[in-house]
């Protein structure tokens, strides 16, 4: 997916929110924002939005010396969702359609995104998950169900911390197929890394690898050789979040994108209103 002109103000907002999260030094805020404005002037709009965000967050880490600016944020997000997990597991098991229920809860967890909402609170997280079954939904459930039943190997591209805990519900429904969960290779935004997968207990259940990249999406050319090999070999790819949709929507493969529509650019592209839970086949 190419970068829309409407993506640029969002990237600039994200830049300032991230800078303010790390430091109260207004001169650092100004320096980073000016650099982002300069990059925006020259950026290749044929690249996906995560490619621009990757550059911004690299520079932010360089300027501040803070390797994981969102560490504390990710910790409370993982904690909050792990507290909710037993009740959510019970909801899935009591459902007449556990796969669909787990899928919708996993999509609801995509609201835990500091890229789209830098002011996200614990209450926001709880509300997003609790009203999962009330959100508008768009997707071919039977096609997804058929793809899952036919797959032997599933590559599950995770997105954010907190959200990755809810992903366990869907992973449970995909077992006993071979599942490889992919997390980010380096810290960026509140995206999940190996540490988050360990903290929510995914690593004893499935194989977890990182993608070798610090982009808030999955840019195959920027990822590891292992990622590209696993991507090509998988029978089914489940890609969580708008960042993965933005970076992979033009890639070939049997890909289902699971995300909440969180901006007008994506809403126009998929033809659904803001807040819709998307189960979209590539």
UniProtKB/TrEMBL annotation:
* Pfam families, per the entry: ARMT1-like_dom
Q: Which residues form the Damage-control phosphatase ARMT1-like metal-binding domain?
A: 4-277
Q: What SUPFAM superfamilies does the record point to?
A: AF1104-like
Query: Domain of life, per the record?
Result: Bacteria
What name does the UniProt record give this protein? ARMT1-like domain-containing protein
Which species is the source of this protein?
Cyanobium gracile UHCC 0139
């Amino acid at each position: 997916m190419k970068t829309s002109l409407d993506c640029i103000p969002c990237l600039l907002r994200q830049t300032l929110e991230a800078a303010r999260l790390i430091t109260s030094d207004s001169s650092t805020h100004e320096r980073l924002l000016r650099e982002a404005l300069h990059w925006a002037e020259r950026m290749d709009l044929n690249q996906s939005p995560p490619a621009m965000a990757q550059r911004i967050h690299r520079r932010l880490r360089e300027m501040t010396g803070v390797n994981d600016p969102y560490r504390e944020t990710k910790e409370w997000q993982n904690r909050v969702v792990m507290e909710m997990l037993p009740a959510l597991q019970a909801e899935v098991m009591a459902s007449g359609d556990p796969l669909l229920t787990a899928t919708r809860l996993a999509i609801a967890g995509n609201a835990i995104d500091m890229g789209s909402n830098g002011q996200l609170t614990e209450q926001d997280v709880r509300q997003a998950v609790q009203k999962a079954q009330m959100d508008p939904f768009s997707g071919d459930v039977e096609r997804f169900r058929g793809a899952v039943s036919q797959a032997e190997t599933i590559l599950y591209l995770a997105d954010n911390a907190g959200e990755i805990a809810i992903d366990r519900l869907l992973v449970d429904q995909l077992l006993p197929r071979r599942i490889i969960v992919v997390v980010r290779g380096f810290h960026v935004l509140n995206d999940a890394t190996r540490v988050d997968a360990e903290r929510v207990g995914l690593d004893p259940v499935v194989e977890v690898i990182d993608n070798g990249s610090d982009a808030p999406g999955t840019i195959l050319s920027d990822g590891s050789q292992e990622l590209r090999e696993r991507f090509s070999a998988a029978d089914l790819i489940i890609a969580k979040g708008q960042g993965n949709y933005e970076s992979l929507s033009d890639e070939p493969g049997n890909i289902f994108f699971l995300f909440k529509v969180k901006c007008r650019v994506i809403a126009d592209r998929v033809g659904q209103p803001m807040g819709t839970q998307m189960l979209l086949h590539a």
